[in-house]
Amino acid sequence: MSVITISREFGSEGDAIVRKIASSGLSFCGSKFIGTILSQYGYVEFDKEFSTLPTFWERFDAQRENNVMSWRTCSIR
């Protein structure tokens, strides 16, 4: 089974892209469906975790900060 993952940001029209792909006969699994499945396996805080995930730019900034801190640590030695 093939999987297509579409990440979205505000204004990216990700929902429209997903609907167009799904209309070609592929199955669509949204966050509600995934949350339902995960809750059956005991992961009941999916909605909370999903809504608090860092955005691309937040992850980018965190990675950049880690790289800068690593560079500073190496420079001091």
Any overview of this molecule?
The chain is mostly helical and 77 residues long. Helices cover 60% and strands 0% of the residues. The longest helix has 21 residues, at 56-76. The N and C termini lie far apart (51 Å). The model has no long low-confidence stretch (mean pLDDT 76).
| Strand percentage | under 5%
Number of helices: 4
Q: What value does the average pLDDT take? A: 76
**Shape summary:** extended
Strand and helix order: HHHH
Q: Nutshell version of this structure?
A:
By secondary structure, the chain is mainly alpha-helical. Helix content is 60%, strand content 0%.
Question: What labels would you give this structure?
Answer:
single chain; 77 residues
Topology, element by element:
Layout lengths: L13 H9 L8 H10 L5 H6 L4 H21 L1
